[in-house]
Amino acid sequence: MSLRLDDIKAPVAQEMIAFEQKFRGSMKTKVMLLDKIMGYIVKRKGKQMRPLFVFLSAGTSGTINESTYRGASLIELLHTATLVHDDVVDNSNYRRGFFSVNALWKNKIAVLVGDFLLSRGLILSVENKDFDLLSIVTHAVREMSEGELLQMEKARHLDINEEVYYEVIRQKTASLIASCCAVGASSAGAEKNQVEWMRSFGEKVGMAFQIKDDLFDYGEDQIGKPIGIDIKEKKMTLPLIHSLSKTGWWEKRKVMSAVRGAEKNPKDVKYVIEFVKNSGGIEYAQKIMNQYHQGAIDILLQFPESNYRTSLSKLVEFTIQRSV
Fold first, then answer.
1. Which of 7, 92, 170, 181 lies in disulfide reach of 57, CB 3.0 to 4.6 Å?
2. Is the model's pLDDT at 100 over the cut of 80?
3. Mind listing the pLDDT tens digit for each residue in 40-89?
4. Measured between alpha carbons, how far is residue 29 from residues 37, 39, 302 in Å?
């Protein structure tokens, strides 16, 4: 039976509705152009997975309160800022099927919008003395930046091994989900060791989430991102890294040559995908993904049984089972 996000949200459904209003309020500004752009950003928000992790983590480890709402808003503000800036860096005109901010209002305005969002998050935390939450989230933003730069540095030479790959996805993807869970626990008044459990839980979820995302590149699902997009962008992901580690130098040389030519030649993309499938790269990545998934569930079982914990467990399943 497939999991429905609405069912998973059930224990915090009212909180999520209230959060929407509070979050919109945190983006208000008297500058008309900026207000218009903020309205556009709010309208195209996705599944709200990050706030959902915050509220379910808070309910699992303590009591949801006003600090939890501010923590969820802080994460959304700072994360949205990084996305706006990423679109400028990547010269991307689309995000989730909508025009990006830089596509509609140009790069200069987009950078300033990202700066505004960052400042709103900082002000929200400082004014309410949520310094613990601010520390958790700003640490994640730093890690995300470092992970992106590490990946860029390694992509130039295509020399990412498994150890470096794990560090890149831990920083780029897992650190954000880890911060969502840690913010939820901290805002709910959890003990320090429980906040750390939640942070570790979120990190393992994030690792599994990213490996699942990497598997889409090999056409394991008919829905999802276009097949081979990571290969075309010369991103070395786990299925390919593992497959290359198990092959001889001559075959490795041929595959790397195909990766370098993949952006312009669809036959090279097909060759790399077939190589990975025939070398056991898909199965290996799925095994590692399942290990992270199980590790996350094991941590979650340290918390008392509740509707929140059940939904949080289902949310982890949802991230692994998803087709987009």
1. 181
2. no
3. 777 776 678 899 999 999 999 999 999 999 999 999 888 888 888 877 87
4. 10, 11, 43
- How far is 230 from 216, CA to CA, in rounded Å? 9
Give exposure, 245-266, as e/b (b: 16+ Cβ within 10 Å): eeeeeeeeeebbebbeebeeee
162-169 and 131-155 are packed helices; what angle lies between their axes, rounded to 10 degrees? Answer: 140
Euclidean distance between CA atoms 237 and 74, whole angstroms? 30
In CATH terms, the superfamily for domain 5-205+294-321 is Farnesyl Diphosphate Synthase (1.10.600.10)
User: Looking at the predicted structure, is the pLDDT value of residue 224 above 50?
Assistant: no
pTM (2 d.p.): 0.89
pLDDT in tens, 254-313: 888 888 887 787 788 888 888 889 999 999 999 999 999 999 999 999 999 999 999 999
The tokens describing 201, both together, are 């839980």
| Residue 321 near residue 3, CB atoms below 8 Å | yes
Give the closest residue to 176 by CA, choosing from 74, 60, 290, 86: 74
Contact 316, 205 (CB under 8 A): yes
Query: In this model, does residue 186 exceed pLDDT 80?
Result: yes
Amino acid identity of residue 69, one-letter, is Y
Is the separation of the CB atoms in 171 and 135 below 8 Å? no
State the Cα–Cα distance between residues 102 and 106, nearest whole angstrom.
4
User: Domain residue spans in the chain?
Assistant: 5-205+294-321
List b or e across 170-203, with b for residues whose CB sees 16 or more CB atoms inside 10 angstroms: bbbbbbbbbbbbbbbbbbbebeeebbebbbbbbb
How far is Cα 268 from Cα 259, in angstroms, rounded to an integer? Answer: 7
Residue 232 near residue 269 (C-beta atoms within 8 A)? yes
Cβ atoms within 10 Å of 273's Cβ, excluding its own? 22
